[in-house]
Design brief:
By secondary structure, the protein is mainly alpha-helical. It is 41% helix and 6% strand. The protein has one domain (26-233): Hypothetical protein, domain 2 (Endonuclease III, domain 1, Orthogonal Bundle), CATH 1.10.340. A hairpin with a 5-residue loop joins strand 2 and strand 3 (25-26).
């Protein structure tokens, strides 16, 4: 009915790349919805996910959003992303680090537009302070984080052919998680860290049949992989325990509960 509010409805989950309305093959999770979530999901997949970012503010934003997702779905976080940017001062870590209890209470109000979870809000503030400390000691949060990618801070390029091959965590994400926790961060378990690494382009986990894989790997259409598995690295700068929650309740990006 015209004017009726459309709900985001998950589609059946394919394993290989699937073509969207424009005919371009994409990772199946990006085409998993109809309704209001579909356009945002496709845009996120095409223009952000897996594209290397080395900006400290953007990296801090993704640390916060990945932590906020724990126990929820990524579509929920995407819907609230503008509200998060407003609530957290554009993810300026200096401003967020200065938040006090009055600000926490304001962010817990129904009109804040974000996930109203006291521990996650407190974690974001704490993590901002940790980012500033790393900047003070190491000069750049980006350089510190990217040391957990490939040699010399280069992206790791995986060659998965099916969604079921994508791991929930890796030794590198476990190492990043341990290092972040040592620096005082929270809501940064190994699976959250792997999702962060995927989102920031530290790893290229687009399926080889997805049009984005070849773009990001510097090739023309899907590089290597054959039967799936394995990885290499490329030069590129373009373009609490563990997680405090379980599997997302709807089809999302590859992350929780997936084993290689």
């Amino acid at each position: 009915m015209l004017g009726a509010r459309r709900q985001a409805v998950p589609k059946p989950r394919p394993q290989g790349a699937s073509a969207g309305d424009d005919g371009r093959p994409r990772c199946p999770w990006s085409n998993a919805f109809t309704g209001a979530a579909a356009e945002a999901y496709v845009a996120y997949h095409d223009t952000e996910w897996g594209r290397p970012t080395r900006d400290d503010w953007e990296l801090f934003e993704l640390i916060v959003l990945e932590g906020a997702q724990a126990g929820l779905s990524w579509s929920t976080i995407l819907k609230k992303r503008d509200a998060y940017r407003a609530a957290f001062e554009g993810f300026d870590p200096v401003k967020v680090a200065a938040f006090g209890e009055d600000k926490v209470e304001a962010l817990l109000a129904p009109d804040s537009g974000i996930v109203r979870h006291r521990a996650k809000i407190a974690s974001a503030i704490n993590n901002a302070r940790c980012v500033l400390e790393i900047q003070k000691v190491h000069g750049s949060f980006s350089e510190w984080v990217w040391a957990f990618a490939g040699p010399g801070g280069t992206p790791v390029v995986n060659h998965w052919t099916e969604l079921s091959q994508v791991p929930a965590s890796t030794p590198a994400s476990a190492a990043l998680s341990a290092a972040l926790k040592k620096e005082g961060f929270s809501f940064v378990g190994p699976t959250t860290c792997y999702s962060f690494m995927q989102a920031t382009g530290m790893v290229n986990d687009h399926l080889v049949s997805c049009f984005c894989h070849g773009q990001l790997a510097g090739g023309g259409g899907g590089s290597g992989g054959g039967g799936g598995g394995g990885n290499d690295v490329i030069d590129g700068s373009g373009g609490g325990g563990d997680d405090a929650g379980g599997d997302a309740p709807e089809v999302t990006r590859p992350r929780r509960g997936r084993k290689a």
